[in-house]
Amino acid sequence: MRKKIVWMIILACFLPFSLFASWSFAYDSWEGHPRISAGLIPTGIRAGIVNDDLSLFADWKTNLYLLGKVGYHERLVWQNPLSGAMLSTNPLVYDQLLFDWTIGLRQYFGSPQKHSLFVGYRGSYEKALDSMIVGTVLDSGTVQTLSSWFSGGDSVYGPLSGIGTNIGLAYQYNNLVDTLTATDGFSASALLWFGPMLMNANASYVRIEGKAQAAKTLFNIREQEKNLYSIVISNRVSSSIVFGSSIPLAVQQNATLGSKVRGFGTFQFPTDYSLANQIDLRFNGPEPFLSGFFPRLALFLDFGYGWGELYNTSLAQSDFIASTGVAVTFTVRSYMDIGYEMAYLLAGENYEYPGSKMVGKILARLQF
């Protein structure tokens, strides 16, 4: 009897380790608030755990993701609440408290498993709050409270607070080899997210996205396994199609044309269809002390076209925007990039900075 009790105690002690031994930390992304340390401090992080010990098919890897996010962010939105027409002044400015959670399964296949399929569910809860800078006069206008901004009514936005439910399917092909100072190959992905009204209080939409990237190392000098100097050219193409009777802002922020062309705002040029191209010429400096620590100068040229109807309206709209510029960053291995980007607007206007052709931005990327 005592032996059985001892064995039961041993099993009870080791059971948690056996359950979680195949799970590891997974980091997805972070986001800052522009009014808090210029957005350099994370005010929202999406992370969780991943089980990479599954195998639904022999010799093919399967990953199970459990991710969550808590965030506090700002939104600047540029549609008139009554007509849905684009605004050039006095946008909607408010803060957002966000909780979201994702459960997803990614199945790799092929040899050497460069192809993968993903299916997942993402739920969210958003709470809209008055901006922390209410009453401040920005270049684009005076920041108002939510009640004041919507005082004339609303036929476009709907409730800004509530629960959202989304189902996603994705395919990815990855043959891109990136060692930070040298990048070669090709990658492509296709994504389908839909949020049916049956599962949402304020959403009924379908979003389709396609992305492709090709890169080539043009020049590379190395010494003792450290980079002295390299030049990489990269080209990225991204496209979005969004349609539905109620497209929430959480969906719009990743699909607008303005979010795809550097120098423009996230919620600018919100049309059903958008297509953009980004060309980068990167000059990677020396790694003087440790591998992975080096400066980078990138020259870029972006252009894109959006057409169709403005979100949640029947108003036809088409826009061509373009920018060129330079970004100077310092890279810390694959974990972090920090620097500054300056874009010159060749076509189109960023209404957050009316009349300005030069738009600067602090860059900060964190990756685990």
UniProtKB/TrEMBL annotation:
Domain of life assignment: Bacteria
Name of the molecule in the record: Uncharacterized protein
Taxonomic source organism: Sphaerochaeta globosa (strain ATCC BAA-1886 / DSM 22777 / Buddy) (Spirochaeta sp. (strain Buddy))
Taxonomic classification: Bacteria, Pseudomonadati, Spirochaetota, Spirochaetia, Spirochaetales
